[in-house]
């Protein structure tokens, strides 16, 4: 009986958290997508809007906590705003989407979302916080916020006994975990991971929107989220970072193929959200935007747009983009004010000295060997598909370029980080490369998917050939 009751409480808490996030998120997503809260202007489906709404909810909730600092006060203010946003969203839903939800194709996709979300809910919520980074960094920060009832200095960020805990790391997910436990009124080593589960939902919904009855989509589904185990559920942030990175690439590709504004907005939102997951998100954001810009230029992007060429700026997008970045700026300000510096010492004179030393002492070879050890499978598969494309005498699949460029630059960037690390190089490589290269594996897998999809759709490749001919 107690197990059933606890399960009902968990379902109720999850539903309440989703409603809270949707309410907050609509206050950002409504103006972003449609310029208002009630009328639908952008050509988009609810299943495409829903993950964007959740991202807005995560960011606005984090921003409210950073501004007011106290858990209780932030939840009260957030709750009031969420009720307003939820009321407006329900009106919007009834007016614009309620009939379309009965469409069999739409229902099938929502069933697919439920299947994937429930499939991964088990390992996320049934395993306690055990591994070092999960227990002593990410959710230790959540515990500090929870017991202090605040994300301010009362949480103990300047306490010398906790300097081991990488206190400069992003606090969005730890903050969400602390809020969940504050509502429950106790702390344990299981329920804080509900925050991971909630943040896992948006990329899962986006992944389902790419559903097709093809081998390439089956390849994408089984190799993208499931290859990220156990990093999606063990309390580390590397799996989530890789998942969002991959979805940003997929959404950008769909925008370049179909020119739908919802895909571009979602891709940029995914990319910006990387900043709130972990510090490597800064590098991931830079390489993604660089890859997008390069591909847009070489594919003559402005010519392909179905809009008149203009230099006019839509200030609505600019203003909302600035609002979305405000929590990141606030936390960066707090870091400097409170002296929470990064342990890598990036940009210091000592870092350049270590770079020069390691370039000359053979460390580069060790770093290269370690990095390729964890990406060789995805890289070899990519090379195999590129060679297959040549054997079929087909043109290079340009759609794979953003994924290849962004992922390659990420690997180079991480290699540079290892070259300047102040820690023992062997220790640093052994304790981190296996997880930070998950993003690279995901990126190369996206490139493989895009090549495979193109080969599937190519009439020359699929043309039946007589026996004895290749």
pLDDT averaged residue by residue? 89
Rg over CA atoms, rounded to whole Å, is 23 Å
The SS-based structural class is mainly alpha
Form type: globular
Q: What is the count of distinct domains?
A: 1
Distance between the termini: 64 Å
Number of strands: 0
What is the overall number of helices? Answer: 18
* String of helices and strands: HHHHHHHHHHHHHHHHHH
**Helicity range:** over 70%
Strand content: under 5%
Q: Pick out the low-confidence regions.
A: 303-312
Largest sheet: none
Overview of the structural elements:
By secondary structure, this protein is mainly alpha-helical. Helix content is 71%, strand content 0%. The chain has one domain (2-457). The chain contains 18 helices and no strands. Helix 1 crosses helix 3, helix 5 (132-148) packs across helix 6 (172-184) and helix 15 (363-391) packs parallel to helix 17.
SSE topology sketch:
Elements: H1 2-34, H2 46-68, H3 71-96, H4 104-126, H5 132-148, H6 172-184, H7 194-208, H8 215-223, H9 238-258, H10 261-273, H11 280-298, H12 301-304, H13 315-338, H14 349-360, H15 363-391, H16 401-420, H17 425-436, H18 438-457
